[in-house]
Amino acid sequence: MNKKVLIIGGVAGGASCAARLRRLDEKVEIIMFEKGEYISFANCGLPYHIGGTIEEREKLLVQTPEAMKARFNIDVRVKNEVIKIDTKNKSVKVKNEKGEYDESYDYLVLSPGAKPFVPKEASIESDKIFTLRTVPDTDRIVEFIKDKKPKNAVVIGGGYIGVEMAENLTEKGINVTLVEAAPHIMAPFDSDMITLGEKELEENGVKVILNNAVSEFYDEKDKLKLKFKNGEEVETDFVVLAIGVKPDTEFLKNTGIELAERGHIKVDSNLNTSVDGIYAAGDAVEVTDYVNGTKAYIPLAGPANKMGRIIADNISGIKSEYKGTLGTSIIKIFSLTGATTGNNERTLKRNNIPYKVIYAHPASHASYYPGGNPLTIKLIFNMEGDILGSQIFGYDGVDKRIDDIAAVIRLKGKVEDLIELELAYAPPYSSAKDPVNMAGYIAENVIFNKNEVILPEDIDKRDKEKTFILDVRTDLEFETGYIDGAYNIDVNEIRDRLDEIPKDKEIYVYCKVGLRGYIATRILLQNGFKVKNLTGGYETYTASKFVPKGFDNDSSFNKEVKEEVAITDYQVNRELDACGLCCPGPLMQVGNCMADMKDGEILKVKASDPGFFEDIKAWCKNTSNELLDITKNGGNIVAMIKKGTKVENQVLAKPLDNKTMVVFSGDLDKAIASFIIANGAASMGKKVTMFFTFWGLNILRKNEKVNVKKDFMGKMFGFMMPRGSKKLQLSNMNMGGMGAKMIRKLMKDKNVTSLEDLIKSAMDSNVEVVACQMSMDLMGITQDELIDGVKIGGVGYYLGEAEESNVNLFI
Ligand code: FAD
Fold first, then answer.
1. How confident is the model over 666-712, as pLDDT tens digits?
2. Percent of the chain beyond pLDDT 90?
3. Phi/psi of residue 475, each to 5°?
4. Helix (H, G, I), strand (E, B), or coil: what is residue 62?
5. Cα gap 167→505, rounded to integer Å
6. Neighbour count for residue 89 (Cβ, 10 Å)
7. Is 44 known to be catalytic?
8. Fewest CB atoms within 10 Å of the CB: 50, 184, 571, 590?
9. Annotated active-site residue in 44, 511, 579, 583
């Protein structure tokens, strides 16, 4: 007698099982039940049909029952739902338009998939709330958009489907708000990486609302009213619910087939369920996490297809095993690609698995060949060299890198294997040291203790008294932005400036992406300093700090992008392609070009370094050139810059009119003079910035003692220096403190305002009082010891202000 196999579910797992089974066994009788109208459709393509990228609906229908019958001799029964299983008598009960019938089996394959989760508050009568799983779901959304021409949509849930829908609805010209209840979208990524995706969404006009949820839905005829947990109310034309899926396994209850807590089918490594002769595959199955061995639920098409094939093998007598799921996945977010494999930090922490992290930002291909873009690679590994996971973002070449790493994890490879991988290289595709090799090198340096790394969170949590942040980028880069409190020494000057770096503190070094930081670390370590390098550098640090504007996002970037056409209207005098160069390369090239150009001429510059988007704004501001326009398209940034100082409509184009002062001295008379000038300039409506450094800091100290933790040197300085304005001495004729007392009396008699009142009045008039972070660090002064309202800043900040001033005093 021939075997009879029934398959429940006609898409990924079910259809691949059926086809493989037929290829292995011509005689077996195969019946495939599908409760929906279509089999083997491209569910992963559904959002792209809604967005219009996949124009023809037919392209979603990869197989038809007729084609499956013709090629594979499979009895496909669509609109036939299995409603019960009698495991004792080996038969199923099926319901279709005509009624119900029973079908017996020798083997039963379950691949019923998972269905969208709909919270009870969204279960209201409404034709404006959609979910997306099937082709008819897609048709409904497409028709709604066509008929109602909606302007606004709210996508609830920031998982893969939610994000894809946010993008595709935006592509249709709809204003989209994406709501996620967790602190970040896309749980498979760590929060420090997914900020890149959130930024891309926001820059393309999607309002990203995190840490919030819709708690009430009201259908108000033409609109839907949504009430958020934080009380915010929003009106929208429709909602797409994408808050996750649950296994479609209700019909398996009370059949004896063992289910996990959330309804997933329990299987062994051969994909047998707890009942003999019944196998299960796909989204409905509880899988083993390949990295950590725990049970997991990972609904992905690749694993579903593989499981279908494995079941067919086992039914046909070929012993085949499913060894676990890595969770390798990828997503397009407008022009950006994000991909992940293995475990993220959250999963590892939850399972108490020790790990290390490095970030790398190599170019996707040789930087001298056009079109390359930096990648952001996060590699998670342990000190034994096992690779535990990876996440990558970028505009080009993300897919192959994540697949390389996934393959190495799958084959139980180590960090050293990433280094040894021989990968295809020619300039348009990669570099002689592929980004995957680079990630391996950096991780190996950590394992061999050549480079102790810190993460952005370590910078934020640092003990300011015991650490010293050293920025080893060029001063040009430093001026465009830096980590608060950082001291700047270009890596190329570090050997000559070692005496500026404290030996009694731990040095946290950073550069743009980590490489120069590593070189500086090696120099400093060998000179006896305690050093750690910020892995991924300033790039990773700033990316991790991104917070979407949420309800405040006015989608202004979207407007900028739409006006991109206008960029062609400029009379461009010179064009510069700085693609492939990392900071400060593009800025330096812009500087060189502008030097040769005449006032009023326009430079069009194209760059691929993502940081260039903000850097060039700061550069133009600091150099009195006018940034006419800036657009971001994919990984490329195009800026139009007009040379010259006589530009209109720009802050810096105004005549330089601000006043800056470096207050170096801590003498009473000089302090009084500086505050008199500052108050005078402020009263004339000028912007005044006073930068207090070295002894000048004493003017800003509180008069009373503040209890703060200090090291020995800090305590010594604190003890020896005057605490606050009232303790300052005169520069001349001090006479053991008598001179200062006399001058104060004289000022009182002549009705001249006291220094303390001058300071207060300056601050009330918005004079910017800035304390030099570097001097504070050197002298062991903390912010708590300074009077309220003092800003902490670096030299870069002061220089930026000085650029905009026409009076600059050194007192
Ligand atoms: P499914 O493919 O869902 O098939 C299950 C079928 O069983 C369904 O058609 C259902 O109608 C039928 N069924 C259920 N119960 C019964 C019953 N009692 N009787 C008869 N028939 C029944 N994965 C990726 O890896 N990458 C992607 O880019 C991606 N994008 C996606 C986009 C969307 C919009 C969706 C919905 C999913 C996406 N997925 C993606 C997930 C992927 O489609 C699933 O992981 C995969 O299809 C799971 O296969 P499966 O066989 O377990 O279930």
1. 899 899 889 988 888 877 778 899 999 999 999 999 877 776 666 66
2. 69
3. -65, -25
4. coil
5. 47
6. 9
7. yes
8. 571
9. 44
Question: What contacts 785, CB < 8 A, 6 or more positions away?
Answer: 701, 702, 706, 708, 718
For residues 772 and 782, give the distance between their C-alpha atoms in angstroms, rounded to a whole number: 11
Rounded Cα–Cα distance for residues 304 and 291 (Å)? 18
Cβ of 82 closer than 6 Å to ligand 1, yes or no, is: yes
- Encode pLDDT of 444-472 as tens digits: 999 998 888 999 999 999 999 999 999 99
- The residue with tokens 């405040």 is 552
Q: In this structure, are residues 631 and 597 in contact, taking their beta carbons and an 8 Å threshold?
A: no
Residue 619, judged by CB atoms within 10 A of its CB (0-12, 13-18, 19+), counts as buried
Q: Which residues have CB under 8 Å from 525's CB, separation 6+?
A: 531
How high is the pLDDT of residue 560?
A: 39
pTM of the model: 0.76
Ligand 1 atom index nearest CA of 38: 9
134 alpha carbon – ligand 1 mean position (Å): 8
User: Which amino acid is it at 284?
Assistant: A
Cβ(119) – ligand 1 distance below 6 Å: no
Nearest 5 degrees, angle CA 279-CA 283-CA 287? 70
Residues 6 or more apart whose Cβ sits within 8 Å of residue 763: 769, 789
Q: How far apart are CA 171 and CA 699, in angstroms?
A: 57
Distance 43 CA to ligand 1 centre (A): 7
- Do residues 267 and 280 lie in contact, with contact meaning Cβ atoms separated by under 8 Å? yes
Q: Is 113 in the pocket of ligand 1 (CB under 6 A)?
A: yes
Q: Is the CB of 309 under 6 A from ligand 1?
A: no
Q: Kindly give the number of the ligand 1 atom that is closest to the alpha carbon of 94.
A: 19
Split at pLDDT 50, 70, 90, the class of 68 is: very high
Question: Which tokens is 353 given?
Answer: 């698995």
Does the C-beta of 301 come closer than 6 Å to ligand 1?
A: yes
CA of 112 to the centre of ligand 1 (A): 7
User: Rounded CA gap, 266 and 17, in Å?
Assistant: 18
User: Following DSSP, what letter does each residue of 333-355 receive, concatenated?
Assistant: ETTEEEEEEE--HHHHHHTT---
